[in-house]
Amino acid sequence: MKFIKAIFATSVLMAVSGAFAAGTGYSTYPLSMEKSLIGAEFTGITSSGGGVGVQGRFTQRVNSKFNYDAGIGISGGQRSSRIFAGADYELFPDYENQPKISLKSTIQNSKDFDRRVNSVSLAPTVSKGFSFWGEEAFPFIALPYAINLDSKASTYHTSFNVNVGITGKLPIEGYSNLIGMLEATVSVKDSFTGIFAGVSYPIN
Predict the structure, then answer these.
(1) Which residues fall within 8 angstroms of residue 60, CB to CB, at 6 or more apart?
(2) What single string gives the DSSP state of each residue in 83-135?
(3) 38 DSSP β-pair partners
(4) In whole angstroms, what is the distance from residue 125 CA to residue 61 CA?
């Protein structure tokens, strides 16, 4: 079992290192009731129009099944800015051998290639808590499908991505209250490929 966990963790990290979106973020992390996270993320788009940047994200746990997040980001390249908000609803909890299954919806306004694009997406998400070398972490995979409206041309297109990532407390002495996140997004249809990595601090 430890070998399988190590292979899974390695594959997630390899995907991340090779490969952006507002992303799944911390939606799969099991925040205590009515707790919040505030954090900063490094972003990098490796496909067309790519560039590096930063974004801030606020995540709020509302109850045992529902949380939401919101943020803003800027980047170099031709995908230069975004503002977003999302909500995640748990369908099945992470319990014994059963993974957590949820649906995350996100709305986003972004500037891509000198055009303003409004997007609405829905992402089925599967996550599971594991102990990695004595520390608990939460690998996940999400499949966001989006409708994107180009406000300048008054046209729309759909896009599809595969997001893989992992969240968990940082295994660094003196910083165990911080929560880290690595996530990669890979374009399947009419989107882009990239990475982001973040650190968040719990508040409340």
Answers:
(1) 35, 36, 67, 68, 69
(2) EEEEEEEEEE--BTTBPEEEEEEEEEEEEETTEEEEEEEEEEEEE--EEETTE
(3) 58, 201
(4) 17
Under 8 Å between Cβ of 146 and 156:
no
- DSSP state, residue 46: -
Residues in CB range of 47: below 8 A, 6 or more apart = 187, 192, 193, 194
List of the chain residues with pLDDT < 50: 1-21
Residue 34 DSSP symbol: T
Q: For the chain, where are the E strands, in sequence order? A: 36-45, 52-61, 66-75, 79-92, 100-112, 115-127, 130-132, 135-142, 145-150, 155-169, 179-189, 194-203
Report all structural domains of the chain as residue ranges with CATH numbers, in order of start: 2-203 (2.40.128)
Distance CA 142, CA 84 (A): 17
- Give me the sign of the Cα torsion angle 45, 48, 50, 56: negative
29-75 tens-digit pLDDT: 999 877 999 999 999 888 777 789 999 999 999 998 999 999 999 98
pTM of this prediction?
Answer: 0.83
